[in-house]
Amino acid sequence: xxxxxxxxxxxxxxxxxxxxxxxxxxxxxxxxxxxxxxxxxxxxxxxxxxxxxxxxxxxxxxxxxxxxxxxxxxxxxxxxxxxxxxxxxxxxxxxxxxxxxxxxxxxxxxxxxxxxxxxxxxxxxxxxxxxxxxxxxxxxxxxxxxxxxxxxxxxxxxxxxxxxxxxxxxxxxxxxxxxxxxxxxxxxxxxxxxxxxxxxxxxxxxxxxxxxxxxxxxxxxxxxxxxxxxxxxxxxxxxxxxxxxxxxxxxxxxxxxxxxxxxxxxxxxxxxxxxxxxxxxxxxxxxxxxxxxxxxxxxxxxxxxxxxxxxxxxxxxxxxxxxxxxxxxxxxxxxxxxxxxxxxxxxxxxxxxxxxxxxxxxxxxxxxxxxxxxxxxxxxxxxxxxxxxxx
Length: 391
Description:
Layout: H1 2-6, H2 9-21, H3 30-40, E1 47-52, E2 56-61, E3 66-74, H4 101-121, E4 126-133, H5 146-152, E5 161-172, E6 175-178, E7 181-184, E8 186-195, E9 199-200, H6 210-228, E10 235-243, E11 250-251, E12 254-263, H7 266-280, H8 282-285, E13 289-295, E14 301-303, H9 305-317, E15 323-326, H10 337-342, E16 345-353, H11 372-390
Parallel strand pairs: 3-4, 3-5, 5-16, 6-15
Antiparallel strand pairs: 1-2, 2-4, 6-16, 7-14, 8-12, 8-13, 9-11, 10-12
């Protein structure tokens, strides 16, 4: 399989670098979508549907009657200023592919090319649906990311399984991280507004200082996981932003605290929200008032055991075989979890670490070793082969 993929390696790099130079934020991927469409339209034997979930594309290739499998790649970038100084770095100020979605999209285009080749040769056993998805990173005004919109389109109704691949900077080239069951966290964001009565900094006794009140709320939040959640369960609450006040000698009327809630189990997710609500009540004891708002995000990612078995077989059959690391992926979130709630599916993490050093996801200096591109395409194609072989 790697031989066929190596033949299109230059194209994979060309596509990835184009996406990297012209990144677009969630639900704004118009030029990205147009570029993908221009490549897909040059292929035969492929059915293309556009404007899926906004800017998304679904491309279908019919094989010889085997079960239909979906492969998803995300297209959007992040609001991050790139600092790599690469010759193909982002041309847009403050926008960057800092999570590898450029690589994911290029890989899926590579898969499309070779699936069409196999269909022409009569060796494509099953049907494949390629999903170029918008907005994995951020939700729209309706609170939904791209995956729920793609699912709502109804175009995936015949899927028997769905797979995805994510580049992984903490794993070296040739390594593959896999895990059955819950593998990434649910993600919900929260905002606590602490209100009091502001006033002159020289007369604090005449105020109900929301900054002082917030200090007790913060202690409650930071002690929540260690004292309220079973240590054997997985969950965390982190604060990312605190806003309050405009002047050193003025006590403000309110303070806003925003953060994120993450969990593996749904009951822990529910408990964390309840405990946050209880913490806000302590503001009353100090003469203030607190209001909690929670924005529901994606559920925890649950990888299907049988799909993971096919991925493990694919990794072992690859030439050279991948070194497999079987462990959860951490407390990050992935809206691919919406697909795995509806269909048997799994996401794998493929090592892309540069030989020089590790460049972390969601940072301005994130980079990949581009040799991961053909490895990823070959792995996805081999996974299809293994899944059909087990059907």
